[in-house]
Specification:
Elements lengths: L24 H4 L18 H11 L4 H5 L6
């Protein structure tokens, strides 16, 4: 729900100052969403290590990988 994929039946939420299910472009540019596809996850590795592995696979520069999302 906080990613905007699921619409709530009641209540409110704010993430980065946005209402997620409104799916504003500026909101979607501020976060990454990892969906649970079996072939994308290495079950014997912690999540942080899986992210590091994918950083290497896709040649993402370390500085860009480590940049906090609010620094975009």
């Amino acid at each position: 729900m906080l990613s905007g994929v699921i619409y709530p039946t009641a209540g409110t939420a704010r993430v980065f100052g946005f209402t997620p299910w409104e799916r504003a472009d500026a909101f979607r540019r501020r976060f990454a969403l990892v969906m649970g596809q079996k072939n994308q996850l290495w079950w014997d590795l912690p999540a942080a290590d899986s992210f590091q592995l994918h950083r290497e696979i896709y040649s993402l520069p370390t500085a860009e990988f480590n940049r906090p999302p609010w620094a975009i």
